[in-house]
């Protein structure tokens, strides 16, 4: 076969094949994945989930805490003179717009347990959220622990200017002693008022609580607290005071049924007085804190006085702590602190070291 004949035959086959292929249904390629875009309206770190109208922010932390007590832990729940612990937190914030405003939700998991889990629209919040009376100070352990994270129904509203009002209902402290004859008939009710004037922010709040006795009776308890904080630029100053009667769990100064003191942990739902509630327990807290920024670092001093009585016992505790927070890099800080604790006349010097990486 001549070379020219072979070339012409090959060209004819290619043309015929192309024409046949053109008659076949076209095969569409897979659509390119849409890249996630930012959501500046919701703040830094939010990005839009591809194919949805929801914006998501993922953050968290890992933390190392070390402690040594010269008093052998006499003023702490632990009896060991030293402890080394580690913890983590992983947080998800989701937001999207709706006809009724921004719908948001927050989920924070810390050390395999749920710290926050709530949904919110406008001023209404439902789920496990920050308590509206959680105003206490401290660096490593202090603060009014009861109102930290509560399963609740909460509503807040602006009253005009820089004043706002928040109300909430929760059953976090409505447990009872084992063998209790009665239980609380209603949830705890909380109210808080916040106002800002210049560099100062003032908060006042109150709570009501039904305290069930271990054998009979229910006592109507209450708690009141207030705080003032001033950010003067060169220093930040905070003062906090609280008093509770048959609702001492709100301020973290309570007793168990056996009369054992629990000065640093809010004993929710514990027995609040004598077996028949004829002697309600009471507690008070005074706190002061000063923080001085030094560039990206800060130095602070915290002082706390707690008093509680009930079930024939009294408790007095004092804490003085100095802390220095040093920022090593963005999202990474180290905080050494030294505290002097005295509980019922027993003192201990406690050294802390916290190393935390936020992301």
Task: Describe the structure in your own words.
The structure is a single chain. With 359 residues, this protein is mainly beta. The chain has a single domain, classed as Beta Barrel (Porin), CATH 2.40.160.10. Helices cover 6% and strands 56% of the residues. The chain contains one helix and 19 strands. The strands form two sheets. The chain has a 16-stranded antiparallel beta barrel with strand order 2-3-4-5-6-7-8-9-10-11-12-15-16-17-18-19. Strands 13-14 form a two-stranded antiparallel sheet. Strand 9 and strand 10 form a beta hairpin. Residues 1-22, 72-78, 142-147, 175-179 and 253-279 have low confidence and may be disordered.
Please summarize what this structure is.
The chain has one helix spanning 3-23; strands at residues 47-48, 55-69, 82-98, 101-110, 113-121, 124-130, 149-160, 163-170, 188-197, 200-212, 218-231, 236-245, 254-255, 261-262, 282-294, 297-310, 313-329, 332-343, 346-358. By secondary structure, the protein is mostly beta strands.
**What string gives the helices and strands in order?**
HEEEEEEEEEEEEEEEEEEE
CATH architecture: Beta Barrel
Note the main sheet: 16 strands, antiparallel, barrel
Task: State Rg.
Answer: 30 Å
Spans of at least 5 consecutive residues with low confidence: 1-22, 72-78, 142-147, 175-179, 253-279
Strand order of the largest sheet: 2-3-4-5-6-7-8-9-10-11-12-15-16-17-18-19
**Beta-strand percent range:** over 45%
Number of strands: 19
Task: Look at the structure and name the CATH superfamily.
Answer: Porin
